[in-house]
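Sequence only, no structure available. Ideas?
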Amino acid sequence: MSTSTAGRSPFTLAVSSEMVFLSLPPVERVRRLHELGFQVEIWDWTKHDISALARTGATFSSMTGYVTGRLADDAGADELLKTAAQSIPVAKDLGIPRLNLHGTGLGDKGLPVTPCEVVTGTMWLKARDTLSRLADLAEQHGVTFMLENLNQPVDHPGTPFGRAEDTLALVSSINRPAHLGLNLDLYHAQIGEGNLVELTQRCLPWIAEIQVADVPGRCEPGTGEIHYPAIARALDAAGWQGVIGLEGWAATDDELALQRFRSAFTL
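Reply:
I predicted one. Tokens follow.
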């Protein structure tokens, strides 16, 4: 099945290899996405054969930029900085420019390793300090760390700093977009926040990457309530031409899901 469409996409399109072609081994998923003309996202690099991924010839958009750690307490922040530093050489080996972060480490099924129901003012200040240190690390090594928003009602209950409003407040307060940006996940933002076009406009100066899936179900665009073509037109009108990544499951057929994703962001 061809994924070509008429028109053009002003964006660079990437796909998470962790969520499509699941019948294939991880390296073959990456190779298949590369053959179809997409950049590739991976998650936990410790679970991959990095040398084998490098041999696929794929272009990688992003990866998880830490192994363990947390933003908002001293021990967790030190652990986060340590494993972020360990992640950078892996990113360099694969040519990955953007490394993804969350408010706390995620365990099985995306649940926070250290759940948090109430985020205090002290935690906000510590999180900002930790992110500033990460921006220093990123500048030293020529990469960009991204802070991703995660929804709490459905997928990630108890994750601190999960709302897009939270990630925007933290990242914009540091205001070093070359080295610390937003991974603005519109699937997560739709759940409990919504108003996605206006949200992207407010976040625009700090967006390092955008991720998408539809609601409900976390499948490809066109399977739920989000009208992604309107978001694509708004981003294009604003002059944004960065990476948009599909981080969603295929509703039925993998190649059909990729065709729908490409079509939603083709103008």
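DSSP finds nine helices and eight strands in the chain.
Hope that gets you unstuck.
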